Amino acid sequence: MTAHGSVVLRVGLTGGIASGKSTVAAALADLGACVVDADRVAHEVMARGGAAYDAVVRRFGRSILAADGTIDRAALARLVFADSAARQELERIVHPVVRAEAERRFRRAALEGGCRVAVFDAALLVETGVYRDFDRLIVARCSCAEQLERLMARDGLSLQEAEARLRAQAPLERKLALADHVIDTTGPVEATRRQAADLWRQLLDEAERRSGGTEPEHHEP
Predict the structure, then answer these.
(1) Average pLDDT, the chain
(2) pTM score of the predicted model
(3) Neighbouring C-beta atoms of residue 74, cutoff 10 Å
(4) Low pLDDT (below 50) residues in the chain
């Protein structure tokens, strides 16, 4: 931590949907990273009374609301994944609010807990260009076939719905070209966690070098 209580190393974590990045994030959190899950924060800011709730309802109408007035995320997802313009509008509303909340949590973690490595777990870091705001980029990857299988099992989607969600994200090749670190999540969870542990040691070493004034160069955008 610097004298101003800022995080020493800021890391973006991304990957295709259902690529295993949440497993990587959990492993890094267990090892001591301050992890902010963008999707979880998005849930919070779109909850009733949340910072993005009113703007989302104004834009998409009351048809996206459940009987109790909360946003029906499944209904909203069906709408935006069928309409790229609507999806971009949702991102325009929600993403800045999520980023602001993530920054607040990072600052608090640095000031209160001495956080040295902060990880922002978000699916669209590359698509939005936000990856440029981080010192390092981790990409979690697995095969397209495994992504589809995981996504259908996790979210109860049809093959067509799952394929539409994959198409809404940047090609994996683009993310891999920008990555500083890649974790292959194919296979057992234990293998993914071992890779995360190896990576954690590298991140801590880099944080130590940075705190001593030696900062390795970041990847080119």
Answers:
(1) 90
(2) 0.85
(3) 12
(4) 1-4, 216, 221
Q: Express each pLDDT in 113-134 by its tens digit.
A: 778 899 999 988 998 899 999 9
Q: How far apart are CA 48 and CA 38, in angstroms?
A: 18
- Specify the pLDDT at position 1: 32
Contact between 122 and 38 under an 8 Å Cβ cutoff? The reply is yes
Q: How far apart (Å, rounded) are the C-alpha atoms in residues 44 and 63?
A: 20
- Output DSSP code: residue 71: B
- Distance from C-alpha of 29 to C-alpha of 34, rounded to nearest angstrom: 6
Neighbours of 18 (CB within 10 A): 24
Locate tokens 């683009």: which residue?
174
Write the DSSP string, 5-66: ---SEEEEEEESTTSSHHHHHHHHHHHT-EEEEHHHHHHHHTSTTSTTHHHHHHHH-GGGB-
pLDDT for the residue numbered 4:
44
Q: Is 139 helix (H, G, I), strand (E, B) or coil?
A: strand
Distance (Å) of CA 133 to CA 33, 120, 175: 18, 11, 15
CA distance 121 to 105: 13
Tell me which amino acid residue 29 is: A
| Locus of tokens 């397209």 | 144
Which run of H or of E encompasses 140?
strand 136-141
Residue of 186, 169, 37, 163 lying closest to 155 (CA atoms): 163
Helices (H), 82-187: 84-113, 125-128, 144-155, 159-167, 172-178
